[in-house]
Amino acid sequence: MTTRMTLLRTKHGPTQAGTALVATALDVPAMQRRRCMRHMPCAPESARSARHLVQEKLTDWGRLDLLEDARLIVSELVGNAARHTGCTRLCVALGLDGDRLRLAVRDSSRTLPAVIKTGVTETSGRGMGLVDSIANRWGVDEAPFGKWVWAEIG
Questions:
Q1: Domain assignment of residue 54, yes or no
Q2: What is the structure's pLDDT at 113?
Q3: Burial class for 77, CB neighbours closer than 10 Å (0-12, 13-18, 19+)
Q4: Is 109 a member of any domain?
Q5: N or C end of the chain: smaller count of CB under 10 Å?
Q6: 71 in a domain, yes or no?
């Protein structure tokens, strides 16, 4: 029997996710949970579609206070998948549990994203660093054919 590992980064550094994370999700009444999932081509242009999806859903859910950060995060997650994984399709998922919004992108690669230090003059390589600085926490969950990279705000 193998244990599925989840990488989790919080404002306090990397940890291993545990059952406490599941318990917090279950504490939110079902009527306050919202979900949306959409499949897209694994291409840089899909970042625009993902931003539109985020805007549409957060408008529907009455959470425009999360819009700016959510659009930036989903754009970076989709962009990273398109540039670094070699996937042909990806899936963008949004979940709102009470005040917490989770944005996630599934791709077909097992390669983990990395936060890399960039100089002030560099024009690329900032994606996961931005996610790390904006999100309350972010992580990676293994999937049967790839992984989910997710970030939470709110």
A1: yes
A2: 86
A3: buried
A4: yes
A5: N
A6: yes
Sheet holding 6-10, edge to edge: 13-16, 6-10, 137-143, 146-153, 100-107, 89-97, 33-41
Q: Quote the pLDDT of residue 119.
A: 57
Looking up residue 62, the CATH number of its domain turns out to be 3.30.565.10
pLDDT of residue 41: 98
Average pLDDT, the chain: 82
DSSP annotation of 124 reads S
Give residue-wise pLDDT tens across range 37-61: 999 999 999 999 999 999 999 999 9
How many other CB atoms are there within 10 angstroms of residue 13's CB atom?
A: 7
Q: 84 Cβ partners below 8 Å, 6+ apart? A: 109, 111, 113
Nearest to 80 by CA among 55, 106, 101: 106
Q: Does 135 score more than 90 pLDDT?
A: yes
CA dist 116 and 85 (Å) reads: 17
Under the banding of pLDDT at 50, 70 and 90, the label for residue 107 is very high
Look-up of token digits 């193998």: 2
Total number of domains in the chain = 1
User: Sign of dihedral through CA atoms 54, 11, 140, 75?
Assistant: positive
Residue 127 lies in domain:
6-15+28-153
**47 part of a folded domain:** yes
